[in-house]
Amino acid sequence: MAKVIYEKRDQIAYITLNRPEKHNAIDTETDELLFEAWSAFAADDDARVAILSGNGKNFCAGADLSDHVDQWLEAGPDLGRKVLDKGFAGRITRGLHKTPKPIIAVLHGWIIGGGIELCLACDMRVCADDAQFGFFHMRRGMHFGDGGIVRLVNTCGVGIAMELELLGEPIDAQRAKEIHLVNRLVPQAEAMATAEDMASKILRNPRAGVQSAKETILEVIGRPLDDQLRLEALYSYSVMGDREIVERKEQFLAREDQDRATSS
Q1: pTM beyond 0.85, yes or no
Q2: Edge-first strand listing for the sheet containing 110-112
C-alpha cells in the first residue's frame, strides 16, 4: 500500500497518511509522496478544499527518526541553510504553505513532534476526543524547526508556546481546545464528518473570496497594524470584480428589490 493516499471526491481532496504500523511517522519516501500530494492539490482547479487524516490508531508520530537522524548528525548552521527551502511533510510547513486553498486536518490518537508541526501548517483542525499531543522532542534537547514555534505563537500566543515547548509535556484534546490549538473537539466517530461539514460550508462560498481571505490572513500575521490594514484593503477590494462575486451581489440585490416590492 502507498504510504500516502490521494483521492478526490467532488471538490474535496483527501490526503491520508498510510503508515499505521509506524504510527504514520514521516520518512523520506513519505515526505516525497506528501510533496506530490500537496502539489497535485494546488494544481487541480477542481479541488477546492483538502482534508488531511491518518490511518490507524494515530494521526502522526512526526519524523521517522530511523530515517532522519543520519541527516541531522551534521548539525549546525550549514544544516540549517540546507533545509531552509525544504520544510517538512512535503514542504507544507515551509514552501507550499502559501497555497490559497483551505486545508483541514482531522486529528486522532497521538500527534507527536513533527506531526504537531504538520497539523499546525493546516488552516483548521478537527480534533477527536482521544487525541494526545506529544511535545516530547524537548526531552531530547530539540525544539521545533519547521514552523511549530512560529505557528504556536501565532495560534496560541507566546505564553502557551513557552509552556508547551519548554516543559515537553503532552496535552490532551480538551487542553488543546482550551488553548485554541484546535478548532473543533468532537467524538472520534464524528471527526471526519465534522471536517466534511466544514468543507461543505467553505465550498458554498465563492472561490475567489475564500482564497483571498486565506491569503490575507497569512500575509497580515506579524506585520505592523498600518501594513495589515493596507493589505486587507488591497486583497479584499481586488476580488470585487470576480464574475462569481458579481453574480452573487446581483442576486442579493434582486432579492432585496423583490422583498421591498412584496412588502409594499
Answers
A1: yes
A2: 110-112, 132-134, 171-172
